[in-house]
Design brief:
By secondary structure, the protein is α+β, with helices and mostly antiparallel strands. It has 19 helices and 21 strands. It has two domains: 4-233, Nucleotidyltransferase, domain 5; 234-422 and 459-479, ATPase, nucleotide binding domain (Nucleotidyltransferase, domain 5), CATH 3.30.420.
């Protein structure tokens, strides 16, 4: 079959984009159609997503797409919109960084102990997982009036097509899915008083999700019918499809606002050791499991730049590269770094509490952040290997972090493994590849899709330098 074009809508926590992917048996190319900011809004003390502005950005991007074989939607996880009986949106979705979930962990633990919750869902404890958000929302007028709950990418799909379903890779981040059965965990829902009837039926990547509505065709200028295809709607699920691995023994780090570091497995790891290490078993494409841990990611650096008024990053990275290595490090997985604001000061405070020198200038702060992220990558990948029994030969970095050469080099040094950096737009590429396979342009499993990535995408390899002794010593300082 000749090559065809597919539209990938990729919504990240700080920006959205609509990409056009041209796919053939020896062709895989992306073109940016439209980029738009994702700016949360605080109203009445609550932090919301501006979901209508995001939808407007999606429509504007699709209006530039031309003739496409299908459309796929992916986004960040855990957040949702509530619809009433008339399918009207009951307010802008609440942002996962909002403080409403404070204290809900104790309520959840009182209903279901952490060991039982992990055994049922395999998900790491994160204070903003959907179950904590729904626990915080209990008793509110919005939840009382809700007749349907749609995760963010499912909400966009519903507005585009009128078809409501719940894509499985994103559903698995709610902490309401059993990773062994890939079905809802009624044990968890019943224990927490969560009505699973709010969720539409589950669907798998590759399934049809309806066609663009006539009103959407009019708005975008597209000529119908234009099908919408289920992809890995959690952006990390699509990004892992977009890892250009040549063998099974690889680790991945999907970098962006978060660093999601881990392995691709055939079955979940539900041991008590895994729970204590705070690893998650999220579901992936083709029946896979994304065994990973969330690390704070480039959020730390983004927040520092915001605090400093948005200076150019390249000069700061050049100066940071000359700073004494591992002078000071912090725990990049510390939940204290989740809220926005005052990030340089909070990093300095963390260094002082652990008896390390506070960064003296911006370059030292940037180096502290990148050393700390590389250290967190090292710790996570080492523990993932130990807990899963899967050895790793190479680390793939995908997402926005591939442009940060210093972070890639430091990660190779810290892990003591080669790092292959690229592609930056892994989520959009994974999105497009799943669509292309569903349309019959491509055949085979994930290995075949990744082979096309490896043949067509620019990649850069970083070899580890030196020994791991200094990294071990630094690890002890932020433990």
């Amino acid at each position: 079959m000749s090559s065809r074009s597919f539209a990938a809508v990729d919504l990240g926590a700080s920006s959205g984009r609509v990409m056009l992917g041209r796919v053939g048996t020896e062709e895989l190319a992306l073109t940016v159609l439209h980029r738009f900011p994702n700016r949360p809004v605080r109203i009445g003390g609550t932090l919301h997503w501006d979901i209508l502005a995001l939808y407007r950005g999606v429509l504007d991007g699709l209006g530039e797409a031309g003739d496409v074989a299908s459309v796929g939607i992916d986004s960040w996880a855990v957040d949702y919109g509530l619809l009433d009986a008339s399918d009207a949106l009951l307010g802008n979705p609440v942002h996962y960084r909002d403080g409403r979930t404070e204290g809900t962990a104790k309520k959840v633990q009182a209903a279901l102990c952490p060991a039982a919750l992990y055994s049922a869902t395999g998900l790491q404890h994160l204070p903003f997982n959907t179950i904590y958000q729904l626990t915080a929302a209990q008793g509110t007028p919005a939840l009382a009036a809700a007749r349907r709950l749609l995760l963010i990418p499912d909400l966009i799909v519903y507005w585009l097509t009128g078809q409501a379903d719940t894509e499985i890779t994103n559903a698995s981040t709610t902490q309401l899915i059993d990773p062994r059965t890939r079905a809802w965990s009624r044990l968890v829902a019943d224990a927490l008083g969560i009505d699973l009837g709010l969720f539409p039926p589950l669907c798998e990547p590759g399934a049809p999700r309806g066609e663009l509505l006539p009103e959407v065709l009019d708005e975008t200028g597209l000529t119908g019918p234009v099908p919408v295809t289920a992809v890995g709607s959690h952006d990390t699920a699509s990004a892992v499809v977009g890892v250009p691995a040549k063998c099974a023994n690889f680790a991945y780090i999907a970098t962006g606002t978060w660093s999601l570091a881990g392995l691709e497995l055939d079955a979940p790891v539900l041991t008590e050791d895994s729970r204590r290490a705070n690893f998650t078993n999220e579901l992936g494409v083709d029946g896979t499991v994304r065994y990973l841990r969330n690390v704070m990611g480039l959020w730390l650096l983004q927040q520092c730049l915001t605090e400093w008024g948005g200076p150019p990053l390249a000069p700061l990275l050049k100066r940071a590269a000359a700073v004494t290595p591992l002078r000071s490090v912090v725990d990049a997985g510390d939940p204290a770094f989740i809220p926005p604001g005052r990030m340089p000061q909070r990093i300095a405070d963390a260094c002082r509490r652990t008896g390390q020198p506070e960064p003296g200038d911006r370059a030292e702060t940037v180096r502290c952040v990148l050393d700390s992220l590389a250290l967190a990558h090292r710790r996570t990948i080492q523990e993932a290997q130990r807990l899963s029994g899967r050895a790793v030969d190479v680390v793939h970095i995908v997402g926005g972090g591939v442009h940060n050469e210093l972070l890639c080099r430091l990660t190779a040094d810290a892990c003591g493994l080669p790092v292959v950096a690229g592609p930056a737009e892994a989520a959009a590429l994974g999105n497009v590849l799943v669509q292309a396979r569903a349309a019959g342009v491509l055949n085979g499993g994930l290995a075949e899709l990744r082979s096309l990535l490896h043949r067509t995408q620019p990649l850069r390899r970083y070899e580890p330098r030196g020994t791991s002794v200094a990294w071990k010593e630094a690890e002890a300082r932020c433990a």
